[in-house]
Amino acid sequence: MSSSRNALRRADRIGWLFALPHLVLFAVFLLAPVGYGFYLSLHRWHVLAQDHPFVGFANYRAALADDIFWLALRNTLLFVVIAVPFGNAVSLLLALGLNGLRKASTPYKVAVYLPVVVSISVVAVLWRWLYNREVGLLNLTAKGFVDALRSLGLPLAPFDPIPWLADPSLVMLSIALMTIWWTAGGNMILYLAGLGNIPEDYYEAARIDGATNAQRFWHVTWPLLRPTTLFCLVISVLGSFQIFGQSYVLFAPGSGPARSGLTLALYMYQQGFSQYEIGYGAAIAYLLFALVLGLTVVQFRLFNAERRAREGRAI
Amino acid sequence: MLLDRPPTTRREFLRRAARQGLGGAALLAAAASGGGCGVGRQKAAVRDERDAQGRRILNFWNGFTGPDGKTMEKIVRRFREENPDLDVRMQIIPWGTYYDKLTLSLAFGGAPHVCIVHAARLPEFAAYDALNDLGGLYAAEAAGGRGFSEADFAPVPWRATFYKGRQYALPLDVHPICLYYNRKLFREAGIDGPPATGEAFLEAAKALTRDTDRDGKTDQWGFVYTWQRTNFLTFAAQFGGGIVTPDLQHAALSSPGSLAAAHTMLDLITRHRVAPRPEGVDAWLAFRQGKVGMALEGIYMQTSLEEQKGLEWAAAPAPQFGPQQGVWGGSHLLAQPRGIPDDAARDAWRLMRYLSDQSLAWAAGGQVPARRDALNNAAFSQLAAPAQAARQLDYVVYEPMTPRGNALFPFADPAIEAFLIGRETPEEAFADADRRMEQVLKRP
Amino acid sequence: MSTTRYRPQARRRRFDPGQAFLHGVMALAALLFLAPLGWMLSTSLKSPEDVIAGLGAMRWLPNPLTTENYRYILSKVEEFPVWRWTANSVLVALSVTALVLVVDTLAAFAYARLRWRGRDALFGLLVATMLVPGQALLIPSYLIVRALGWFDTYLALIVPAGASAFGVFLLRQFFSNIPAELEEAAVLDGCGPLQVLRHVILPLAKPALAALGIFTFMATWNAFEGPLLYTDSLAMRTLPIGIAVFQGRYNTEYGPMMAAATLAAVPVVIAFLLFQRHIIKGIALTGLAGR
Question: Model-level pTM?
Answer without folding.
Answer: 0.84
